[in-house]
Amino acid sequence: MRTEISEEVITRAIKAIIDVGIADDRDKISVHSEFKGYISSFGAAVIQSGILPALIFFEDKGGAQKDRPKLLQAIMKMNNWETPNGKGDLSLVKHYRSATSAEKSKLEMRILQDAVALKLALRTFKFVDKE
User: Fold this and answer.
1) Cβ contacts of residue 14 below 8 Å, gap of 6+?
2) How far apart are CA 40 and CA 54, in angstroms?
3) What is the distance between the alpha carbons of residues 52 and 54, in angstroms, rounded to a whole number?
């Protein structure tokens, strides 16, 4: 199923990139180049393993890729899927798992659409190597 990525969705993606700290806090116009790889590998992980395994993998904060969960946080932010206290206690994995079977296919399409919007939105930032 093909979906159109609207200007409004890309604008939400840009805001989410800044809000969750993917954009550099100092200048708000640059992004570490590792995020280009993270967002590219997210789509491949969904195709290869399915949505839930991909979400679990990307939510894992271990190892050198401790910033990888920020992509899922950005998707949460784009859709206002955060807890009322704003601390982000609800993870995207928990949000997906709590959906009914009927809701899961729509939710998967929404997550993939937002991932594409994030990939496009990242191109509006300057990529820099991590220091």
Assistant:
1) 121, 124
2) 12
3) 5
Could you tell me the domains of the chain?
7-124 (1.10.520.30)
For the CA atoms of the chain, what is the radius of gyration? Answer: 14
Whole-prediction pTM: 0.86
Q: Measured at the alpha carbon of residue 99, what is the angle toward residues 98 and 105, in degrees to the nearest 5?
A: 145
Q: Walk along the chain (131 residues) and give the pLDDT tens digit of each residue.
A: 556 788 999 999 999 999 999 998 777 889 988 898 999 999 899 999 999 999 999 998 766 567 889 999 999 999 998 755 555 557 899 999 999 999 999 999 999 999 999 999 999 999 888 76
List of residues 6+ apart from 5 with CB closer than 8 A: 113, 116, 117, 120
Tokens for 78? 């784009």
**Residue corresponding to tokens 């989410």:** 16
How far, in Å, CA of 129 to CA of 91, rounded? 28
